[in-house]
Amino acid sequence: MELDMTVARKAAEEAVEAAQQVISDFLARGDWHVTLKSDQSPVTEVDVAAEKAIKQVLTKALPNAAFFGEETGKSAATEKSGKGAGLRWLVDPIDGTKSFIRGSRYYSTQIALEVDDELRLGVSNAPAYGEKMVAVHEQGAWLDGRQVHCNDITSIDDAFFSSGNLTTLARDADAWSRYAQIVGRVRRVRGYGDFCHYHQLCSGQADLILESDVNILDIAALTVAVREAGGIITDMHGQAVNEATTSVLAACSVALHEQALDLLHG
């Protein structure tokens, strides 16, 4: 469908600002409840309140768009045709809740927009870290207002590598051994995780990322950013990112991505 991306971008940026205000208010108060979801992952009342604030902004801007939130789940578009048809917001109000609970600054708000099942817009806001990434399909990626680009590293021997959640990978001895081959080849190894190493990839501070335990709400906005910064992002098997994706292999160049895939599966 036809959509004015300026309107969508403005709404997404306003929504992360609304979430940031909610988070800031709770932090100033210093008191909130934490409960466990069915999968035993934590959720705070801050997550819920931030998602509510986000949804209000996005629904006002595009009332017919569907919504998929980390805390409130999926809601269909109010109409199946007309303005807003084929649109869906994907939202994680606090990606990195465990970090947030511990007082770490490695948490962020993630908002992406799908247009006809294709990720077209992403905003990744990390208020405690002081960074906001905005990316628009076929327009570019900006970090704090400055357009950013991935490195042009093509050899794994020159790559700065960052890993995130690796629980599933570590449970497979063969896969873990192949992961070790990457670690043994790259120039530097770090483990920034969450939004942080994707921001770094987009701005040339990192070159290769691997995670084996994610969900689409963690990475939807960041997927747009990586692509618009000139990088490549798939799951760890080289398959395209979609709603069922649970792992990530992202690189600054196709050549580097292919080398990493070969080491993981060769």
Draw up the topology in text.
Blueprint: H1 5-29, E1 34-36, E2 42-44, H2 45-61, E3 66-69, E4 73-75, E5 87-95, H3 97-101, E6 108-115, E7 118-126, E8 131-136, E9 140-143, E10 146-147, E11 160-163, H4 167-170, H5 173-185, E12 188-190, H6 194-202, E13 208-211, H7 216-228, E14 232-234, E15 248-251, H8 254-265
Parallel strand pairs: 3-5, 11-12, 11-13
Antiparallel strand pairs: 1-2, 3-4, 5-6, 6-7, 7-8, 8-9, 9-10, 13-15, 14-15
Question: Could you characterize what this model shows?
Answer:
With 266 residues, the protein is of the alpha+beta class. It folds into two domains: 5-129, Fructose-1,6-Bisphosphatase, subunit A, domain 1 (Fructose-1,6-Bisphosphatase, Chain A, domain 1); 156-265, D-Maltodextrin-Binding Protein, domain 2 (3-Layer(aba) Sandwich), CATH 3.40.190.80. Helix content is 37%, strand content 26%. The chain has helices at residues 5-29, 45-61, 97-101, 167-170, 173-185, 194-202, 216-228, 254-265; strands spanning 34-36, 42-44, 66-69, 73-75, 87-95, 108-115, 118-126, 131-136, 140-143, 146-147, 160-163, 188-190, 208-211, 232-234, 248-251. The strands form three sheets. The protein has an eight-stranded mixed beta sheet, with helices on both faces. β9 (140-143) and β10 form a beta hairpin. α5 (173-185) crosses α8 and α6 (194-202) runs parallel beside α7. The longest helix has 25 residues, at 5-29. The protein is globular, with a radius of gyration of 18 Å. The termini are far apart. Mean pLDDT is 94; it is low at 79-83.
